[in-house]
Amino acid sequence: MEKQIRYQIGNETECSFKNHADYCVGTGRMGLALQQQYQEQLKLVQEQIGFRHIRGHGIFCDDMAIYQEYTDESGSIRAEYNFTYLDMVMDAYQKLGIKPFLELGFMPYKMASGDQTVFYWKGNVTPPKSYEAWSGLVQAVLLHLIERYGREEVVTWPVEVWNEPNLPGFWKDADREEYFRLFQETYYAVKKTDSRFLTGGPAICGVDDVLWLEKFLEFCEAQDLKPDFITRHHYMFEKPEQCGHYSYGALRDPMTALGELKVSREIIDSFETFKGLPMHITEFNTSYSPDSPIHDTTVNAAYVAWLLSKLGDYCESYSYWTFGDIFEEKGVPFTPFHGGFGLVANGTIPKPTFWTFAFFNKLQGRCIHRSDELIVVQKDDGSYCATAWNLCLEQKECLRLYLTLPEKEEEEYCLLTKTVDEAHGNPRKIWHDMGEPSWLSKEETQILKDSAQPVIHTETFCASSCGISFSILLQPNAVVWFQLKKIKKCKDRGYDYFCGEDPAAGTGN
Amino acid sequence: MEKQIRYQIGNETECSFKNHADYCVGTGRMGLALQQQYQEQLKLVQEQIGFRHIRGHGIFCDDMAIYQEYTDESGSIRAEYNFTYLDMVMDAYQKLGIKPFLELGFMPYKMASGDQTVFYWKGNVTPPKSYEAWSGLVQAVLLHLIERYGREEVVTWPVEVWNEPNLPGFWKDADREEYFRLFQETYYAVKKTDSRFLTGGPAICGVDDVLWLEKFLEFCEAQDLKPDFITRHHYMFEKPEQCGHYSYGALRDPMTALGELKVSREIIDSFETFKGLPMHITEFNTSYSPDSPIHDTTVNAAYVAWLLSKLGDYCESYSYWTFGDIFEEKGVPFTPFHGGFGLVANGTIPKPTFWTFAFFNKLQGRCIHRSDELIVVQKDDGSYCATAWNLCLEQKECLRLYLTLPEKEEEEYCLLTKTVDEAHGNPRKIWHDMGEPSWLSKEETQILKDSAQPVIHTETFCASSCGISFSILLQPNAVVWFQLKKIKKCKDRGYDYFCGEDPAAGTGN
Amino acid sequence: MEKQIRYQIGNETECSFKNHADYCVGTGRMGLALQQQYQEQLKLVQEQIGFRHIRGHGIFCDDMAIYQEYTDESGSIRAEYNFTYLDMVMDAYQKLGIKPFLELGFMPYKMASGDQTVFYWKGNVTPPKSYEAWSGLVQAVLLHLIERYGREEVVTWPVEVWNEPNLPGFWKDADREEYFRLFQETYYAVKKTDSRFLTGGPAICGVDDVLWLEKFLEFCEAQDLKPDFITRHHYMFEKPEQCGHYSYGALRDPMTALGELKVSREIIDSFETFKGLPMHITEFNTSYSPDSPIHDTTVNAAYVAWLLSKLGDYCESYSYWTFGDIFEEKGVPFTPFHGGFGLVANGTIPKPTFWTFAFFNKLQGRCIHRSDELIVVQKDDGSYCATAWNLCLEQKECLRLYLTLPEKEEEEYCLLTKTVDEAHGNPRKIWHDMGEPSWLSKEETQILKDSAQPVIHTETFCASSCGISFSILLQPNAVVWFQLKKIKKCKDRGYDYFCGEDPAAGTGN
Amino acid sequence: MEKQIRYQIGNETECSFKNHADYCVGTGRMGLALQQQYQEQLKLVQEQIGFRHIRGHGIFCDDMAIYQEYTDESGSIRAEYNFTYLDMVMDAYQKLGIKPFLELGFMPYKMASGDQTVFYWKGNVTPPKSYEAWSGLVQAVLLHLIERYGREEVVTWPVEVWNEPNLPGFWKDADREEYFRLFQETYYAVKKTDSRFLTGGPAICGVDDVLWLEKFLEFCEAQDLKPDFITRHHYMFEKPEQCGHYSYGALRDPMTALGELKVSREIIDSFETFKGLPMHITEFNTSYSPDSPIHDTTVNAAYVAWLLSKLGDYCESYSYWTFGDIFEEKGVPFTPFHGGFGLVANGTIPKPTFWTFAFFNKLQGRCIHRSDELIVVQKDDGSYCATAWNLCLEQKECLRLYLTLPEKEEEEYCLLTKTVDEAHGNPRKIWHDMGEPSWLSKEETQILKDSAQPVIHTETFCASSCGISFSILLQPNAVVWFQLKKIKKCKDRGYDYFCGEDPAAGTGN
Prior knowledge:
homotetramer; alpha/beta; Immunoglobulin-like; TIM Barrel; 2 domains; six-stranded antiparallel sheet; about 25% helix; globular; Beta-xylosidase (chains A, B, C, D)
């Protein structure tokens, strides 16, 4: 069974496609950034995709050891700050060419007003005992970063206040007024350090989000606070069921799900003061649980491709949660493929969705086509570059795209495709066939890495007076990147590719 | 069109398969080993294939600068030796885990009796003015190597005297008597340094080879010389025609060609004294010209697979000429793919034949099947490992191998294949479609490297009472490696590969 | 002021010097081994020193996440094991060429009978709720290691039961009987897994050590347990005082301190059954607190040199606590130099004591002199290799060693020294003069690394009929390595080191 | 014996010091850039010094294989160009962050009008048979570079025509008129390719230089050629004597030698048309022979320091000949230290002069003192940075510099020195004492590398109302870099560098 779609490209007026796929990516808590395997995974991500910012929880958690107290000679408790690990993390980011998108949280144990925690790693989610101490911490950290990495650099790092305060698990009692106070105090602390710091919130997820967002903006307006951007999260999963170590659920209809973002956008724009304020999706993914096997699949890759083609219509960025599988929110994973959020599995093995990002980040140029399966851009040198996908949420059928591009020069063109589908660039399938080993030998790791690469294919053809026509076949949930370039023939003197054989005589070389 | 062959494997008695594919590999002249790109290519070869020895020309050529002369106070000419470059080359080999198979030649300019040279790089091919000086050089070099790398190590490096003296291009007038003298003098010089050095010759190619070999052995017998091994070369190409920078010709029928080796073997064994003496093929390839596009093709890969399955029947080793494309015998190549001898193209891009060696070098174990398309071995852990090929010299047709392996346990097995054919692991095809660029951008190099990997595929199935049956489809001139392993099921608690979907309902994941 | 000592070396009979300096080294808790900086520091240590084993706490602590529980369908609590992080740690050790000396502890939270913890990182120090569960954990871990790293390899990793149970901080109530039970259960669990595992205890420190050791051995004798070795710890510091983040105390007289080991040795030998049983010092250092500035000094280096020259007389090994400064027992350090236990400071900067180990690990050969300031060995090639030190605990005075070695050949010799003292190989001094910055710029880190190298010096002289005489000057607390080798003169034709100048005419080159 | 000089720094008006030390460095012929060891040496140079351009001979020599000819179907000889090796070399330069300073020469064998060659590697030094062919080659090469590396980048690479045509060894008969023709043809060829290419000559050495320069400028004026810069060479050695493999001579008085440059400058300025035209010294060194032991010495380092302090007064750049010892003009060197031109010896061991460049390239800032022994600059952050040297050509005496800097704040300052002298950073001395081995074991190489680092020392002191006064002691021919920085005291809570001891009580730590 094969679905067929035809596009005559180029008759369209310029398409609007805002590509912010490379703006930001999520990460497990900051303390994990000290790990060797974390850095190795991020290195691969930066080499092949190249994000500009990274955002994660826990900069103030006790494993980062920043906030400390001691008793001075007079018997008073005094704060002191430890930047040893913070520097190691930031040095690693700098070396990997990525800047933080600073999320301020959670609460240092000694500053916390309660002992409620979140996650296996026990982030304290209660308000500070003293907002003065909190502001002191925020400023001390920013000033230290400025001193170490330079003021001009550090003020380009956005600052977000806390994470998902609209959930009682992340902020005691989901106390809205208390969050607003936290936001206000933090906002002032940051701006006093340097008014150029872009500062935003409320970092909410999709629970009571309408109410929270409205109240937040009303509060800001009332208090004359001017956040530089608004943040929220966006997950595309129905409530999952737990089975053993894993969570299973259904993907939401993507168009419906996007509606929530539209609403958020409209709320912001309904405030005169905040109209047009940038909105950042500081977390998004399909499932919101780090144990959902869906994350490692090709359907995830195709679903995310669909999202990346649309999200720029609603917001300034969308940070995939997360780049890698060093992540401990529900404990340490038992197996290499375990439905973690990451683009990269432990063992530094890219998953299909890794390539969705790699493919989108290459879509730089003038967009000449955008549809539900395909984006095509034209580069300055005249060549075309595209990403296509075949998202199959229900019926699994192949998709054949018949495309005509408006090249009329009677020359030869080379079409180069990189394909990820069930049989290619899909290491989880190989791992499954191996018996789903819970640990990998060196040889197995190498096979999985090798099998995780997209397959590359080329074809050539000539333009006619109608343009260049060709087709691309996509297996169910395939994601395909292609480029079409005019061939500059360089045949070397005497070179015969067919070695003197008649190329038409057989099928081989 | 598809050819079909069925094999019921395991009823055979143990097959004889002598796998010496990893014993030795050829190289461009020693002076080229100083180059960065040479070392990079050899590094890839050693990581993925892992040869034990390396053999090439020119250790005594002037670019290696070993032999020098000066005039002493009394006005006499005296020899002195310069080991600066020799050490750099040998250090590089040591670092890469490969030992030399020392070929002694050609003649240092200052020691030469004439000025006849061979190759673009002008190796002098005339006898020494003084055999005393020659022996002095041989001994000085061996003693230096012993001093630097240790006697126990260096005596494991075989020594071969000169290269193809039966061609007038390689040895002035192809003067047989003069070569015998060279052999004798060298033999004594080497054995005096350490009698454990394995020393051999006559390193002839297939011209007048019968006569040369008989005369050589008669000479040794008469002079009471006991070479430790006999060497010859073996190319499989009809005389090529030159067209521009390139040479084209026809591949010989492989079985006929092997006949020459059989004759050589019989000649050796016909001498009572030399019966059973090891024979090393110190060079082999399809074409003997480093500008034959055939070298970069899949047909070359399949042809060499056929050869590797048979050569062990005739000789102790067979050294593919050469590991890489840093090679200057006919000048510096103009383009990345140019029909060079190498397993690796410039840009450090593996060619199809690279994988033939990688696949054969993994065939370690008990051979349970050998035919004209397939070798299967069983490993100590019970798993199977195989290489199959579909050599199509004339008609290009697909080959389907139906195989039954004697596993009877009712368990599940995983078949993992790595395939190289026209569409996979064949970077020259991509390069051709790109327009055969004479130089590569970084991006193009990366695409060619990525496209040069075999495609990996897995399947699972159960054994029945008749064994495990499955089929392998080989495109024309494909080379396929596969392993079959019993699956040790490790399903983690709650893990469902199909994420709750019915796997039978569609084609995807 | 200068002290002078003369040694006529070589008239002595062969000296007894047992050099076990490279047998084992300590580490911060196992979970820290996941960190990039930890691995970088260990890499430096292995490249320049090369220990065979590594021992640290916390393999069973919850950050390693090995022990997990879940409720099965029937509602029973069941154990499951997670080896994800264990494999990462052991893979890192394997890559760095070091084997674990397994210390089994502390108690996983879910298996613990109480909630008493030790250290900033909260290792649980209570007995298991169930010894069956404990034995199950021990066996599961060992079996997994055997499966992954090979049985023959893993049985060479010694196993020690718990850490310092004689302190109530490390083992609830310092309950001796309970520890003996733990030892017995663990011993059986280990030996059942493979009887070849060398298993020992009681890992005590110097508190009540005589009583504990006697009782432990009595218990073993009574229960017919045969530990393969006895372990204890050894620190050389008077009880320190805390001041701010730091601990200060006095070094004990080293000879007196060694007396404790002598007593331990005698206790063991007083048991007929255990006479001659190997004794391992599984931790030693000067101060036992990871915030003692003494650790980073040259006096520490000289003191440890003294120890390394003597400890082999009493025991089979002595594991310096620890190789690096990634260590969190009293929290995360605030500054690069902070008196951590490590041989290497954060920033991967070697400290003076690093070189003490590097120098001792090169003392391989026949010992021909051992005194309180100097050890000299002779190598197989006839050259001499030595380490000297000038330990100044009270009065700081220089030491000049006048040495005569028994070389009588009238040839020239080269003396090469590597010196660490106040002015050389002492990065803490540079850091102090820089103002003791709490964090380092890249440039400062590089300066400190460069300044952390020993200074190298050479001199030449001739032997006379009395041997070779020369002197070595040691600044207070210097540690000096030197070698003396006969020079093989290789002057190249025409080379004049003095470029034609009269070397005697000036002081320069 | 000690010389003493006092400088009260800062009363001077701003000193003129033009620091072009990092503009360009020389290299052995381009074909050698393919070598691994060459690239390794250049990597070290770029990491620690960081030059902007690199200039060497032989881009058109036959080992680079660029110029080729063939006979077409009509029987005509036609040119073709091979860029395989050129791209490898330029890629390596790009990777190492260095741009070529293109020297066009020598003559490809097939284009040459004669067979006169220069050097062991036989560069052909005869005029082209056809200037049309020559211009075609120049343009083809430039256009290829533009295509591969981008036009905007490539036009920043200066172009120089030939090398030392005023010597008959480098240009047949030193034929001036013929060189002028070559210059003119080349100039037009380059400018036609892109008029932005800066193009210059005549690349003369100090033989008949006055006459050549005058005639060259007259020719240019007459022909209305506008070279963008003038180039010449500058060596500081009296004619050396050869002894065995080595050349010995005397260093010229540096001030007298500089006179030649002054003359060149004046000649240029005497032409109205060319007044103020930039002059580049495209080669300089002490001896002009690559076998002069002086090159590896500290006197060379001090002499070059003197030169670097002055050369900017006369010219726009001065390219030290050469960065490394992979160099074959007089053959392949026999030993690691052999008086090669390089800043780095084979084995990648920096020589003393390496540090002269490293020290000068850090002298960025406002010059506040320049004298015959010292240059001091002040940086934007207020700190001072300086290089001092003690050039002793005759009498070898120590030099003590008493310096007062105009800091008046009553704070503490840290003086950090890096010293190279006879005993430090002088690996040749260690090698000499080892017996001058002609080849190095890995261990010896490591010792020499370690010994090749400058010794680092710090001191602190306070400013008084008269400024900060301190002294620097320089051994004969020492080169010392130092910086003086105000200390920002960061003492951590409770840290006592002296560990509780009285620092005044002894000499140690």
